[in-house]
Amino acid sequence: MSDQQQEINALLVPLRGQFLLVPQATVAELTGSQLVSEVPKTPPWFKGVVEWRAEQIPVLCLEALCGDNRALEMPAQRLAIFYGIDGYAGLPFYAVEIAGIPHPMKINQGSLEADTEANSEACNYVSTYVRMGTQQHGLIANLSEIERTLSTVMERL
To answer: How far does Cα 107 stand from its chain's mean position?
Structure first.
């Protein structure tokens, strides 16, 4: 047996003002900003739907989902298309607005530590805030909770 720690291929995804750390396997594709069709009577964080691979998929602003509506005023540069991992009907994929080009990285148990200095405002859609080395901070999203909330909105459409 090897003493090496298991590494996970991850993406450090720039949001507006912070970074999202996700396993690379959860991201289906990265695209440039696309025309998003607004959907009436949805929450502000639900930006609308976009056509991707001949499917209409929902687009969300993670920062606004966590209550930071300032992010709604800044245009997204790209979309990260995520696989729906919890199997909700009608949600095989969804998109998250992002602010730049994600950076691939390898992480292991020793490369992350809890960021106790991070904004302590509770957000059900963030599992934890982490620090990667001395300079880089990020958040790990609760993808299951995001998908549950998206599914609830989609059911009402």
So the answer is: 18
Question: pTM for this structure?
Answer: 0.90
DSSP class per residue in 14-81: E-SSSEEEEEGGGEEEEEE--PPBP-TT--TTEEEEEEETTEEEEEE-HHHHTT-GGGGGS--SEEEE
Q: Which two tokens stand for residue 12?
A: 């450090």
Cβ neighbors of 27 (< 8 A, separation 6 or more) are: 11, 80, 81, 82, 83, 102
Q: What is the tens place of the pLDDT at every residue in 61-112?
A: 999 999 998 888 888 889 999 999 999 998 999 999 999 999 999 998 888 8
Integer Cα distance of 52 and 133 in angstroms: 36
CA distances 52 to 32, 66, 148, Å, are 12, 25, 21
CA distance 146 to 50: 18
CB 7 within 8 A of CB 49: no
> Given the structure tokens 């396993």, which residue do they identify?
23
